[in-house]
Amino acid sequence: MSKKFSFFHHYLNLNDSDVIMSYKGPMSDVIINEISKDIQFKLIEDPKAGKKVYAIFMELAQNIFFYSSEVTKFGEKPYRIGSVVLNEDEDYYTLTAGNIVDKKWIPVLWDRCEMINSLDRDALRRMKFEQRDNGELSSENSKGAGIGLIQIALTSAQPISIEFRDIDEHNSFFALAVNIKKGL
Amino acid sequence: MESLEIEGIKSTYFTPHVSLNAQTGECFIKGESYLEDTWDFYRPILTWIKEYATTDKPLNFTFNLTYYNTSSSKCFLDIVKLLKEYQDKGGNTVVNWYYPEDDEDIMEEAEDYKQFVGININIFPY
Prior knowledge:
Order of helices and strands of chain B: EEEEEHEHEHE
Mean pLDDT of chain B: 96
Structural class of chain B: alpha/beta
Low-confidence stretches of chain B: none
Number of domains of chain B: 1
Largest sheet of chain A: 6 strands, antiparallel
CATH topology of the domain at 7-103 and 155-181 in chain A: Heat Shock Protein 90
Number of strands of chain A: 6
Number of strands of chain B: 8
Strand content of chain B: 25-35%
Order of helices and strands of chain A: HEHHEEEHHHEE
Largest interface: A-B, 29 and 20 residues
Strand content of chain A: 25-35%
Radius of gyration of chain B: 14 Å
Radius of gyration of chain A: 16 Å
Distance between the termini of chain B: 33 Å
Number of helices of chain A: 6
CATH architecture of chain B: 2-Layer Sandwich
CATH architecture of the domain at 7-103 and 155-181 in chain A: 2-Layer Sandwich
CATH class of the domain at 7-103 and 155-181 in chain A: Alpha Beta
Helix content of chain B: 25-40%
Shape of chain B: globular
Shape of chain A: globular
Oligomer: heterodimer
Largest sheet of chain B: 6 strands, mixed
CATH class of chain B: Alpha Beta
Number of helices of chain B: 3
Distance between the termini of chain A: 24 Å
Strand order of the largest sheet of chain B: 1-4-5-6-7-8
């Protein structure tokens, strides 16, 4: 796995000038839509990389929308809470997503991420196909096709970094970061 | 049987434009696909294809998508598998897949459907 990523250091070190978009809060469908439009607009001068950033943002936001363990309610409607940050340096855009997960998912996510980072592109494509073929549309950990992380790795063509930090006995903060090369 | 026509809508979610013609067998899914309930949207489309496949008429299916999420891609796989089934039992089936010329990710997906399902897909940039 590539250099260990620290969400906390990352956050503290963010310069305002590097930040393209930053959100923390309830991840509603309306918010996802607004942020996605904002990203498309801001990266319009770099269309190929911009579309990749957009597609990866959508998968990350949907992960939070479906799986974050932190939930708030407005009226009767529950919303899952999480954070997504998009920033840039000279060569790369970086998308970082964070949310609270039940600790039982830590080994699953670690294994999945390590596996993804260890495979070459052809093997990843095969794995995505096989998992999509077997995917259940409505099981507990797979409301989509269950291949979001693989798709993120394929779209970015970069390793995925993940990190966990315990919050209490049952919950951990899960952070994921991925780079997208500029000017493709 | 009846044709099925669904207008594409772009609001909070994106509904693709779907056109399934029961008279001519000309079918397409076009636009962007990101839905509140993906399975709910695609179920009637899968049902339509299964029913059409009993007519033994030619079927010309075109995918023309500029963006879709991974949940939608699962349903596209289900569609491609139905087309393959129809072809295997002798149905005259042509599958076309158009992708935006600068989007290699969508092209790769089309290649994957072609390779792993084992069906001929004509892949065109535009």
